[in-house]
Amino acid sequence: MKRHPSLRDLSSDHHQGLVHARRLVQTAAGSVPAPPEGAAGVVHDFLHLWAEETNHHFREEEEVLLPAFARYGDPAAAPVVRMLVEHVQIRRLVADLQAQLAAGAPDHATMQATGDLLREHIRHEENVVFPLIEAAMPEEALAVLEQQLLQFTS
Questions:
Q1: Which candidate among 46, 60, 100, 111 keeps its CA 20 to 30 Å from the CA of 16?
Q2: Per-residue pLDDT tens for 21-30?
Q3: Does the global pTM surpass 0.85?
């Protein structure tokens, strides 16, 4: 799918999220041989991605992308509400995984739930939210958005 340049970096971030979501689900389900580091290693790697990239990605969407969209589209539209609710749910699951890892062993059900939700969330953004934003915002606003996203720091 051709993505507007202003959203390409956010869209490319999704690739790593999908890779980690798949690893969480496959490891939790036992559908692939456990990696040498086991489930704890898979969760540790995901939590590292979360801390280094994904949390920042969520903040970019919440603090830059959606306020820019709100000038041209309905921020209370069902796809946007779903996106934000899923951000909250994913943050809760991340906190659960952090606590479980600190206690010694991640719960496979939490790993499964995190991977499934993250995968569906990314698909929803790519297939519904980003096209909604691209359709609602004029080209000039998308160009400004691109600069705002480049300048966003945590």
A1: 100
A2: 999 999 999 8
A3: yes
